[in-house]
Amino acid sequence: MEVKGVPKMSDGPWAAICGHWGRIEHRAMSMTGQEQERLESWKQIAAYLGKSERTVRRWQQVEGLPVHRHQHQQRGSVWAFRNELDEWLAGRRLSPEPLADVPNRRTLPLWVWVAATAFLTAGGAIWLTRPSQPRSPALDSVPLTSIPGAAFGPTFSPDAKRVAFHHSPGKGGVPCIYIKTIGSDSMTPLVATKPSELEFNYAPSWSPDGKFIAYLQRVLPAAHAEGRETWLRLVSPDNGIERTLIRVSNGPLLYGNHMHLSWTPDSQWVVTPMADGDRKGIHRISIATGRVEQLTVAARLDYGSQLSPDGRTLVFLRQDGPPGAAVESVLRQNLTSDGHAAGPLQTLYTGRSQASGLAWLPTGKELVFCNSTNAFFGPFNSRLFLLSAEPGQPPVPLPSMDCSTVAVARATSPARTLLVYASGGNQKAQIFSSKLSGLDGKTVFAPSTRFDGLPSFSPDGSMVAFLSNRTGGPEVWLAQRDGAGLRRLTDGAAVWSGPRWSPDGKQLLFGAARETDSLEHRLFVIAADGGPPRLIADTPKASNPFWARDGRSIFFWRYNQSLSRELWNAPQNSGKPTLLGSYLANFQQQSVAEGDFIYFSGSTWPFELKRVSVRDGKAETLLEMSSPYFALTPNFLYFVRKGDRMLCSLPISGGRIREHGVMPVFDGVHRIIFGMTVAPDDSTILWAVTGEQQLDLQLVPDFRP
Fold first, then answer.
1. Distance of CA 173 to the CA centre of its chain
2. Where is 518: in which H helix or E strand?
3. What is the pLDDT of residue 409?
4. Residue 359 has what pLDDT?
């Protein structure tokens, strides 16, 4: 996925949160005094406090949040008084909240959740506030852009009169880096993707002297002989002349909606992350000579580098673990007067989160931090934070609901600071259902306004299990074949891989994060008719479990720091897991076992459908697909063909590939498939597809931290 989605701002929660900060007064004008004081649901209480429903439920259970229950109604029917919440919040002194283990009891606690994405990626972020009552900085914003598609990655010109940014218009449009003058309605294209090539130009950064804009250009395999690569390039904002500096990545992604680049104050060096062979970590590149100097040493993925206004402090993000299931840290590296590393790294923040941007305030003492709950299917609950440049001071949440990348102008005064950030469309997905004989006759399966994905037909075809965050965190849900009889199977289970049916249809298998150890993940089995999950494996970095066809063992993948992933076999009854082999497998892949083979998808697009022999561990490539997801029935293997979105089936017993029609509501990189399943009788297909993204730039003309 080139661009990860961000949560959508809804009018109700936004109004409630702004009201809590004292910024929206009209919300109470039509209410009586008693009605103004009372909140009637967990959703309203969570919105009022600016937290998730899961967090406020935990606060009520563990810390005595004053929430009242209706005695003769359903368990979730609650109410609360605003003044009581305010008094409780004022007296609460928070330190960083510990990550809690997932106990093996009848229901897992509501407050534990971590999920895994894409490209991404799952896990509950640790939202932290200062030990004392937090400040309430002003954040009055006005739209800077309002065009269809996704605008993100803004950067100010040195005089703060213009903004450069990336814009992806969606299907049929040409992605481009644009320049927009603040106060003007027009946009000037600067770097456009060539229609004949698969390029992605992003992460622009304006030099302090105004002469250049540095940006990253990702080149996909179809357009470059050496495969997926990312290059650092320069372009003049005055005449559009471009030149290439250096390749910065030859494999791992530098996320598309992150702020990765910054400049030294003299405009002679570009600071950039690198993941190219032995060159890992944050480096600076001379624009005059192309000389490369390493600033940080990284065994893991470092990205999102930002240099302080005086050039003496570097902050960046470090990811520890697989995308979407990782622990993320904001690290600080002090620099000498000539720009080299000085002293050890310092940690400013650590949590299960998925940030998309850091921006220094002109004072050099604080940063604005765009952070979110991470999930294997994308970031959720994103918002802006103030983050101290000194260790030991947790982030302070700003009165915002969503964000994706952020920038602060250098040309400012103590009385006026310009800030711009991307805000808008949520990363959502719907599950569609259709007969294989007529794909165009699709309907929405068990619809919601949240993320629904990873559907899986039961072995007899009567039930469907899927993953949904419609109640907050990602949970396993069940429904009948037609979407009726919807019920939640897990409660606070921190699900981020699965669910997968046992061959007899009596149990479901899923993966959940182990929060006491940031890189360990547990595998659980739960009865299809309900009950407590049962822990079956507690293995570091385990993910994507699936059953052997005979039900006697479970296979799972393990993440490591290389591009390969380890495939393990865990017997159900006894014996330790054994390693089958290491393979270039996609993190989001959907593996299945059939007979003597395990089928899985390759690591990058175009996704190769592969199979490995259970007997000797040898792998072979069968064909290329447009999506890492496929479906297996007793007779056929279904996949979406590369290039034309044609749904095809490959007979398991051998024979020619059959075509079933073009997959509707799927436009390659614009709409991403998040799981597909076909009924055992080969009559019906379910597939999950993300919604189209809408991001607009919001300008805060007078930000006062």
1. 24
2. none
3. 94
4. 96
Closest CA to 373 of 24, 691, 561, 124: 124
- SS3 track for 164-225: EEEEECCCCCCCEEEEEECCCCCEEEEEECCCCCCEEEEEEEECCCCCCEEEEEEECHHHCC
Mean pLDDT to the nearest integer, 301-312: 93
Q: Which two tokens stand for residue 29?
A: 């004008």
CB 697 within 8 A of CB 679: no
Tell me the helix, strand and coil percentages in the chain, rounded to 5: 5, 45, 50
CA distances from 35 to 60, 80, 111 (A): 22, 11, 29
Within 481-564, strands assigned E span 487-488, 495-501, 507-513, 520-527, 534-540, 542-547, 553-559
Decide if 403 contacts 422 (C-beta within 8 A).
Answer: yes
d(CA 455, CA 4): 21
The counts of H helices and E strands in the chain are 5, 51
pLDDT, tens digit, 9 for 90 and up, residues 451-491 = 898 999 999 999 999 998 888 778 899 999 999 999 999 98
621: number of Cβ within 10 Å: 10
Q: Identify the pLDDT of residue 199.
A: 77
User: What is the rounded distance in angstroms from the CA atom of residue 211 to the CA atom of residue 205?
Assistant: 11
Element (H, E) at 19: helix 11-20
Which of 166 and 254 is assigned the larger pLDDT? Answer: 166
Q: Which domains does the chain have, with CATH numbers?
A: 31-91 (1.10.10), 147-349+389-394 (2.120.10.30), 429-690 (2.120.10.30)
Spatial separation of the C-alpha atoms in residues 163 and 375, rounded to whole Å: 30
What does DSSP say about strands 592-594 and 597-601: parallel, antiparallel, or unpaired?
A: antiparallel
pLDDT of residue 574: 66
Alpha-carbon distance of 220 to 227, in angstroms, equals: 6
pLDDT in tens, 614-661: 888 999 999 999 888 899 999 999 999 987 889 999 998 888 999 999
pLDDT digits (tens, 9 = 90+) for 513-572: 655 344 456 788 999 998 888 888 766 667 788 888 888 888 888 876 555 788 888 887
Range picked from 69-73, 78-82, 310-314, 347-351 for highest mean pLDDT: 310-314
Query: 144: closest CA among 393, 420, 480, 399?
Result: 420
Dist. CA 274–CA 272, nearest whole Å: 6
For residue 470, the tally of other CB atoms under 10 A from its CB is 16
pTM for the model: 0.68
> 181-216: b or e for each residue (b if 16 or more CB lie within 10 Å)?
ebeeeebeebbebeeeebbbbbbbbbbbeeebbbbb
Per-residue DSSP letters for 561-587? SSS-EEEEEEESSSS--EEEEEE-B-T
Alpha-carbon torsion (56, 58, 60, 65), positive or negative: negative
| Sheet with 68-69, side-by-side order of all strands | 38-39, 78-81, 68-69
Average pLDDT across the chain, whole number: 78
